[in-house]
TrEMBL record:
The keyword Transcription regulation does not apply. The keyword Chloroplast does not apply. It holds the Pfam family GSHPx. GO terms for molecular function: peroxidase activity. One of its GO terms (biological process) is cellular response to oxidative stress. Keywords: Oxidoreductase, Peroxidase. Signal peptide: none annotated. Gene3D superfamilies: Glutaredoxin. It comes from the Bacteria. This is Glutathione peroxidase. CDD domains: GSH_Peroxidase (cd00340).
């Protein structure tokens, strides 16, 4: 199977196929409204405004699996994103990204790009310290570690990069820009 064989669901229950994004650069991200990384929405929206007309799509999947940091309904999440960050890209139905009920799309993405670490710096150290308490073997599995993990898919449907939430958004933008 390829990236284009998967889909996500809108809050009103419509299925959106990734095949709708053929020939586009797609950034898939699991998000949260009450996380220390929630300000990434500002940079995601700026990137969307900068590159959307050149072929960037953002697939925003809210997820409440990480410390319950997305407690609201799909409608509340959408309202929060629009009011606080003026987002124009769509938010899809709140879903799991890990475990038995994980969206098949995220299972596929993780199979293509596993976890490679949090990088360096204070946020990376804090994430590593926290995750060691939750899962001492966290480094050795491809699971999503936290909110705002980002996957970049090129115009051919290939998963070319995975960025952990500790990665500077400027690095994510540099990757996206190189594919536009």
């Amino acid at each position: 199977m390829s990236f284009y064989d998967y889909s996500v669901t809108t809050p009103d229950g419509a299925e959106v196929s990734m095949a709708d994004f053929k020939d586009k650069v797609v950034l898939v991200v699991n998000t949260a409204t009450g996380c220390g990384f929630t300000p990434h929405y500002k940079d995601l929206e700026a990137m969307y405004e900068k590159f959307h007309e050149q072929g960037l799509e953002i697939v925003d999947v809210p997820c409440n699996q990480f410390a319950g940091q997305t407690p609201g309904s799909d409608e509340e999440i959408h309202e929060f994103c629009q009011l606080k960050y003026n987002t124009q890209f769509p938010q899809y139905k709140k879903s799991d990204v890990n475990g038995e009920n994980a969206l098949p799309l995220f299972k596929y993405l993780k199979s293509q790009k596993g976890f490679e670490g949090f990088g360096k710096g204070p946020k990376a150290l804090a994430m590593s310290t926290m995750l060691k308490k939750i899962d001492s073997d966290y480094k050795n599995n491809p699971e999503i570690k936290w909110n705002f993990t980002k996957f970049v898919v090129n115009r051919n449907g290939e998963v070319v990069a995975r960025f952990e939430p500790t990665t500077k958004m400027s690095e994510v933008e540099k990757c996206v820009a190189s594919l536009i």
